[in-house]
Amino acid sequence: MNTCDFQGRIAVTPEVAETKIALSRTLNS
Prior knowledge:
Blueprint: H1 3-8, H2 14-28
C-alpha cells in the first residue's frame, strides 16, 4: 500500500479514520 496515497485519501468510515489517525501519530513521532 502506498502510504502517501493513503494519507491523501479522505477517511470514509470510522475504522479508516481511526487507522489514518494512528498512522499519522506514528509518522509524526
